[in-house]
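Below is how a single chain appears once it has passed through the pipeline. First comes the sequence as given, then the structure the pipeline wrote out for it. We keep one example in the README because the format questions we get most often are answered faster by looking than by reading.
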Amino acid sequence: MARGRGPAGELPADVLLVSLGSTSGLRAVDDALAGALGRAGARVALVRASAPPRVRTMALTDLAWALAARRAAVAGIRRHRPRAIVYGSVGAALLWPRPGAIRLDAAMAANRPGRHGAWQRPRERLLLARCPLLVPQSAEALAEVPLPRPGAVVVPPPVDVSAAPLPWEARDVAAVTYAADPHKKGLDRVLAAWARARRPGELLVVCGAPAGAVAAAAGGRVPEGVQDAGRLSPAVFADVLGRSRAFVTAPRREDHGLVQLEALAAGTRLVTTTAPGAYVALSVARAAAPRLVVDRPDDPAALAAAVRRALDAPRGDGEADDAERGRAILRERFAPARVDAVVREQLLPALLR
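Resulting structure:
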């Protein structure tokens, strides 16, 4: 059936991307996918959910965001009359007004255990029965999706390694961590290890944590040698990453690890514990610098020792330059040009067939 022009003579969109946008990471990943689809020749419309009021539980939080995403999708469908829809996450699709492809870094079946996913997991199973296509960020994320499931095209978020990293000797921040979800990201574990590892004058910068979370994770006050930087703009956060010698994390679950990959792209050494979840960055960390991967997540002494290994070993020290090895792996697996090729050759044809 022919479709006429929309408001102000707009042509119908090929793809409507419904972005949940509940975190800066989700917004960045959705923006990157929209850009790749546009470079592949598609007319793309991106709509984003408006942040709902804060509520107390995870189940209610998902409901509030799902309602906001539904409102954004309804308005986007009415305005852009798309041929295909991509929901930027399972959360964005939970209350969809029309079936579409689902982008995901983790399935609700995996990251919403127990009462936290009481309504989301059954709803996800219904979505999978009607979803025409999955667009997981990794093969690891796809493996967590319950069977039966639709066909999939794996499209990783791109990681740009084109900029030259700051020289080691010019980096004035010893370590940085990211703690938008302090419990999930293991902020308490990182702080306990830093208390053991830190030497006089060294600073750990905690980025992304809600107000008061750093003090709470440390037992009541922000420790000496720790800076609570709060929530930063993407540009400022990228600057902190690039000035840091080590990125330290000890997650209780990790769905992808995009921030860790961005740290490696900036030439920053990645110190991490193992964790359940897709955690794509873990395999990169093991390949780049296995001596900085800790297999005992709840052992602060082991994590502290890995932190010291990262901070004390200069580049070109005979262990090989693990920072550059990490950047090489990123070029091979996640370069924007490679991601664009997957979107152009596989994803867009699958969406519009």
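The mean pLDDT is 93.

See the next section for the split statistics.
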